[in-house]
Amino acid sequence: MPSVMKTLLLNPPSFDNFDGGASSRWPATREIASFWYPVWLTYPAGMLPGSRLLDAPPHGVTAAETIQIARDYEFLVLFTSTVGFSSDVKLVRKMKQVKPDLKVAFVGPHVQVLPAQSLLATSDLDFVVRGEFDHAVVEYAQGKPLSEIGNVSYRDANGRIVHNPARPLLHTEGLDSLPFAVDTYQRDLTVSKYNVPFLLHPFVSFYTARGCPAQCTFCLWPQTLSGHGWRTRSPENVAEEFRMVPKLFPHVKEVFFDDDTFNIRKDRAMAIAKLLKPVGFPWSCTSRVHGDYESLKAMADGGCRLLIVGFESSDPKILKNIKKGATVEQGRAFVKNCKQVGIVVHGDFIIGLPGETPESIERTIEFAKELDCETIQVSMAHAYPGTELYNWARDRGFLASEAAADEAGHQLPHLEYPTLGREEMMAAVNRFYDSYYFRPRVVWRILRNALWDAHERKRLYGEAVSFLKLRSERWRWARKTIDSGPPRSSLISVPEIKPAPTVRVESESQSA
After folding, report:
1. What does pTM read for this prediction?
2. Sheet strand arrangement including 254-257
3. I need a labelling partner for 299 at 20 to 30 A (CA). Which of 12, 378, 399, 423 fits?
């Protein structure tokens, strides 16, 4: 049997509290430390004997420690992000100084969108994988030549960038055949290190599907890594992995299905809920506002505790501009149904989407109060390369030239409109949070939940301190960046990087 390269799959260290790759859809340093599981990396890790999945940020593994760990491996697969790419390049340079023969592949949305530019950024990068990388990196570790591996981009002997044909996307049979993420968690990770404020702690998360048919212009993953084609695992396969969680991790309090959207199809959501009900273990998931009362009731009966829902805005024009495919009225009805069946909602809202004005922000704040979700997240609009929003903003001069994150990895406003400045967006995010959470009914709700649970009480206190401290730091960084940047009248679009000479190997069976 041929030997397999000893492989390190890495979610790299960079900024403090930076949740920037692997499975984070919104790469940033958080006001409250939040770490999502590196689900994408678990699949090749489970297929490669002798491999290790190193998730450095939540485990507190430093860059120096990571470099030393990498000395014991032949092949490095690093999940990078737009915000963390420069830091990751510097880290790999130091790794190769210590181990010159280390082979390095970058994966993730950033290198998928900019494969040639990523390869040109450093000679230390041997190849990148565009899109799904599960089998591509496994095939390389097993000795298959780069020229024969689908989805790979690399430099040939003449220094030209070669883009191999895309490989077919994985559908039910292929997804069901992948190893379970929870097996790799047990082998390589400490689950208590993962924290998301609105989920029970500790929790475990994995995917039941890939892709999302929704066309939201700002959403990174469906436009890059996972695609718009919704591809599912069978309900039986999902239930089998779910049943393993309380056995492998008796102290875990819930499972989170980290799909782009879990309940796109009513019959599948209800079928999974029916299979999970006998387990008697709580779970949460993502959702759009299209779920009806019947499906929500079935999910609640099956153990569903919480739904993450993107409302984004209360302005119909903004929802149309971003192709949300949902209405304010649907949002109201959805939350009402969730409350009736006993499912709590975590609502996501975004400040600074196309069409935003000071007036529309205030209407969205009032809308959020009306919905009265259990918890909320308020983000500034960010246009990542590869998204329709990025192209739209760049072409109209609304994309400022400064980076979308500060030196500590905190997100900064990098969109600006004639009707709304960056400083106004920053202030609106803080005002949104304050206006929402410092209402007596919400304060009492939070305190009531903490009174009866010492663990949650301790976590709540730590999160409050962290939030106030880091929010103040981010505000100072934002003011500094905005004050030193160009005036609004001189905003420019991000310059295009001139492409390198490339060779694209065509294939009759090429898939997107």
Report:
1. 0.89
2. 203-206, 254-257, 283-287, 304-312, 344-351, 375-380
3. 378
